[in-house]
What does this fold into?
Amino acid sequence: MFEKPSLITRLVIGKSIGFVFGLLGFIFLPYFYPESGWLLRWGILLWYTTVGAVIGIFGVLTYHPVLKLPFPWWFRAPILGAWMNFVLTFFAFDTMQAILHNMFGEDGFMTSPFWFVAEGAIIGLIIGYFATKFGGEGKETVGQ
It folds into this structure.
């Protein structure tokens, strides 16, 4: 079924897995943060779909041109996922903090919104694994 490396396959798999994680957020967010509105729920769904697309597209880059180092999927995907969630946390700091305060209490261990960065790294690793396994990586994915 997936004999040949394909950028489109990587993109579809990345977006699909991102959509699943976003859908989980969409469904469960009201339980963790009852004040969440539809805008936040839809934003989480579309955010993780976009994260999956970005990780899928970046499967072409297997070598860092400036550092002159290999850029394997297990390094590239978590970095992208963490970076994307860092940006999300940076712009929605108060909302992310409120979500974690509702989940873990005001003085809980995991009340820093930057735990979402670690979550993004884990989700990125999962997306990167499946995108690479089924879609390949490197310039071969672009095809001729």
Observations:
- The radius of gyration is 16 Å.
